[in-house]
């Protein structure tokens, strides 16, 4: 991490804390590629199975969130506030980099070993793009760290099998970055 970067760390299972260090390094590398300077970075752990952004029917083009999605987005906002994630989108030249690791699936040890041994795709979890939308929407709720998800310039999201070492949940790194004047 660059000198002068403020960092906040969440409470999470030990394996996830180790992965958080890697995710923060990923965010730093992404900032370098985008020619941005990381001003502040935070890590949060959202316990429970990640929930994709599901929309229920509405009148015409208007769509409404279902109750499960709304509860998950509120849990994301609460976790972000508890982890003291940096506020993004206040100044004009601020943008954000998000790195997320999803721990999904309720498979047992034998099924996880088979998936790894055969190198088959894990399809036990939700679509990562829809979970990404849920995470971003949750961080925009009242009191959340993000004012507008259009300020996100880069997002990396990975899905892992949840296991005995780590139950289901989402590890999210949010980095507030400033575009460097060149």
Give a verbal description of the structure.
The protein has helices at 14-33, 67-82, 109-118, 128-139, and strands at 6-8, 36-47, 55-56, 64-65, 94-104, 152-161, 169-179. By secondary structure, the chain is an alpha/beta fold. The chain has one domain: 2-Layer Sandwich (60s Ribosomal Protein L30, Chain: A), CATH 3.30.1330. The strands form two sheets. Strands 1-2-7-5-6 form a five-stranded mixed β-sheet, with helices on both faces. α2 packs across α4 (128-139). It is globular, with a radius of gyration of 17 Å.
**Regions with little confidence, pLDDT below 50 for 5+ residues:** 1-11
User: How far is the first residue's CA from the last residue's CA?
Assistant: 21 Å
CATH topology: 60s Ribosomal Protein L30, Chain: A
For the report, how would you describe the main beta sheet? 5 strands, mixed
What count of helical segments does DSSP give? 4
Strand content: 25-35%
- Reading the helices and strands in chain order gives EHEEEHEHHEE
Task: Count all strands and give the number.
Answer: 7
Q: Determine the CATH superfamily.
A: Holliday junction resolvase RusA
Helix content: 25-40%
Kindly report the average pLDDT value: 78
Task: Give me the secondary-structure category.
Answer: alpha/beta
Radius of gyration: 17 Å
The appropriate CATH architecture is: 2-Layer Sandwich
Number of domains: 1
The order of strands across the largest sheet is 1-2-7-5-6
Per CATH, the class reads Alpha Beta
Described by the principal axes of the CA atoms, the overall outline is globular
